[in-house]
Amino acid sequence: MPRSRRAQRRGPGSARAGSTASEEEEAGSEVLSHCSSASEGTSPAEEAAGSEAADEAGQEEEAEDRLKEHMDNLLDKSAKSRQAALQSLRLAFSSKTLSDFLLERRLTLTDSLEKCLKKGKGEEQALAGTVLTLLCLQMGSGPEGEEAFRSLKPLLISVLTDSTASPSARQSCATALGMCCYIAAADLEDLISCLSCLEGIFSPPSAGEGGSTPTQHGPLHCSALQSWSLLLTICPPSHIKSILDNCWQKLPLLLSSSSVTLRILAGEAIALLFELAQDMEEDLCHHDTEFLCTQLKVLATESNKYRAKTDRRKQRSIFRDILRFIESGEYQEETVRFGLECMYLDSWARQRTYQAFKEVLGSSICYQLQNNELIREIFGLGPPLVLDAAALKASKVSRFEKHLYNSAAFKARTKARSRVRDKRADVL
Known about the structure:
Elements: H1 2-42, H2 44-73, H3 79-95, H4 99-104, H5 106-119, H6 123-139, H7 143-160, H8 167-184, H9 188-202, H10 205-208, H11 219-232, H12 237-247, H13 260-279, H14 289-300, H15 309-328, E1 334-338, E2 341-345, H16 348-361, H17 365-371, H18 373-378, H19 389-395, H20 399-427
Antiparallel strand pairs: 1-2
C-alpha cells in the first residue's frame, strides 16, 4: 500500500515532467528548423563563394605540390626524369605568376639548375637555361634576382663559349645571359662583360681584322645577336659611343650572311644603334652611311630566285622599314593588344625588348603582360588591372563582331599591300 500510494503520487508529476520535456524538444526543433530555413534562404551566394574559394585554394595547393615534386625531380639520377621536370617547370613558369612561391625556394632551385647546366648534356642544358631565364623573370630585378644571376653568370658564359658543347645548349645560354643580365644586372661591369661575350659569338675576330665573315651562320649567332641588341637598350650613353666606334663597321658585314634571320637581325641592330645615336645627338657623318644605305636598298628590293619566296618577302618588308627609318627617321608603329589593354611599339628599342620577351614566353606573353609586375614596369603599363566578372564578360566579343572586324581588317590590309606592291613595281 505505501508503495502504491507513492506510485500514485509520483504518476501525475512524472506525466507533467514528460509533457514539459516533450514541449521543450518541440520548441528546440522548431528553433533549429527556423534557423536552418533562415540560413538556407539567405546564404546560397555566400556558400557558393566559399566553395569557390575553397576549390581555388585546393587547386593552388595541388599546383604547388606538383611544382615541389618537379623541383625534387631535378636531382633525379635519370636524365629523362630531369628533362621532364625541366619541361614542366618551363611551362609553369611561363604561364603563371609564381614570384612568392619561387622566392622562398630560389636557393634550392638555383643549385639544381646549376647541376643541370654542369652535368647535363644537350637538351637538358638547353632546358635548364630556359628555366633559369624564366626564374629571373619571375623573381624580378630585386636583390634575389641579382643574386641568382651573379651565381650562374660564369657558368652561362662557360657553356656559351665552349665550342664542344651542344649548339642548342649554347643557344639557350646566349638567350639566358642576355635576358638575365637585362633583368637583374646592377653593375655596369656585368653589362659590359656580357656584351663583350655575346659580341665574340656573332662577330668573330676575322671580321674585325677586315676579313670576310663566315657565310654559314646558325641559330647560335642569331641568339647572340638578339641578346646583344637587347642589352644595347640599357647601355649608358658613354658606352654606346664606344660601341658605335667598334661595331658600326662589323654589323654591315653580317648583311651578306647566308641566313635570312641573321641578315634581318643585323639590319634591326643597325637601326637600333642609329636610333640610340640620335637620342644622344651623336653625329654619324664620319661613318659611311651612304654605303650602308646602298646595301639596305639592295636587300629591300632583292629578288634572287635562289632564296626562298617567303624569305625574300619577309626580308624586303623589314629592310624597307629599316631604310625608311635611316633616311627619314620614320618608324612603322605597331600595336599589341592583350585583354582590355594595348601597348604601342614606337621605337626599335621597344620593339627589340618586346620581341625578346615574346621569344622566351611564347604564347604566354599576353598573360604575362597582364599580370607580371616586372614586365608591366618595363613597358610602362602600371600595376596590373583588377577586373570583376562583369567587366570580363563585357570585354568578350561575339563571333559576329569578330567576323566583321576580321573582314574590315582584311580589306584594309589588302589595300595597304596593293599600294606597297604598286610602289615596289615602280622601283623595280
